[in-house]
Design brief:
3-stranded antiparallel sheet
Length: about 300
């Protein structure tokens, strides 16, 4: 495998929160401990979800926590040609097809039933493009660095959308194309994305691009047991140094890294230097007995 290159790829639908910080921090520490690079990608392929100024706010938050990235920021809104080329390759292989069906039409089914696989059911209507999950690489297996051996049959997950009816690109195709073009060797992200990996591995195989290693992290939840998210109104990360220092220490604790208590008020650079040197995936607890409440 080539030199380690990791990434953090937030959607700028709002500012980062504590759960985002934990994911970004783990990715950063894993890259720096390996002596590798850490890239930043802004996943802004869905403009209606990306308010003005959110991407700038995210970059300021990362910088406030000392999470400085290598190289230029990659913006997905600039990547239309790359995604189109990938979709055309999939179409040529018979792995992507147009679909006129609406979610309302198949709402009584657990997954999309593949009604348009052999031809569009309602010609003349707008179409999305879907991946034929019943073809190509099956089953999909990989070794997660924390959760161990994984085995999925993507056909049980359904034919995921690659390009929406409104012409916007979908996450699964974009993330695979971008990881390949950026030379990403290692993906560190939340456990909620683990079941996205089978589709992504299918796409990597079909497009003939390298398959990164995966490390999925236990999710950070609030005291109500719900995953911290922008949708659940998780508080935005501060950028003032006095608030950042203890929150960085709390994030290291949430990652089971047992940072020295005396570093809780230490400068960000000092905390990160200690954390990079001491980073250990083996300390991560894959299954917690109770939800971890994030600081407020």
């Amino acid at each position: 495998m080539s030199r380690y290159r990791g990434r953090f790829a937030p959607t700028p639908s709002g500012p980062l929160h504590f759960g985002s910080l934990v994911a970004a921090l783990a990715s950063f520490l894993d890259a720096r401990h390996a002596g590798g690079e850490w890239r930043l990608r802004i996943e802004d392929i869905d403009p209606p979800r990306c308010p003005a100024g959110a991407a700038d706010a995210i970059q300021r938050q990362l910088e406030a926590f000392g999470l400085h990235w290598d190289g230029p920021v990659l913006w997905q809104h600039d990547r239309d040609d790359a995604y189109q080329a990938a979709l055309e390759r999939l179409i040529d292989q018979g792995l992507a097809y147009p679909c006129s069906c609406s979610r309302k039409q198949w709402r009584d089914h657990p997954i999309y039933p593949g009604w348009c696989r052999e031809g569009v059911r309602e010609p003349g209507k707008p179409v999305a493009w879907r991946l034929r999950s019943d073809l190509g690489l099956r089953p999909v297996t990989w070794e997660d660095r924390l959760f161990g051996h994984q085995c999925f049959d993507p056909a049980t997950l359904g034919d995921v959308v690659l390009r929406r009816k409104d012409g916007l690109w979908a996450y699964q195709l974009a993330v695979v194309v971008d990881d390949a073009d950026q030379g990403i060797t290692d993906v560190v992200r939340g456990l909620d994305l683990l079941d996205n990996t089978p589709w992504q591995r299918q796409l990597q195989h079909a497009l003939g691009v390298p398959e990164p290693r995966y490390l999925h992290l236990p999710l950070i939840v609030g005291e109500n047991g719900q995953k911290l998210s922008k949708q659940n109104l998780a508080p935005a990360l501060p950028t003032d140094d006095a608030a950042v220092r203890p929150l960085l220490h709390a994030a290291l604790t949430a990652l089971d890294q047992a940072p020295p208590a005396g570093l809780a008020g230490a400068p960000v650079a000092e905390q990160l230097a200690e954390a990079v040197a001491a980073w250990s995936v083996a300390r991560l607890q894959p299954h917690r007995e109770r939800p971890l409440a994030a600081p407020t």
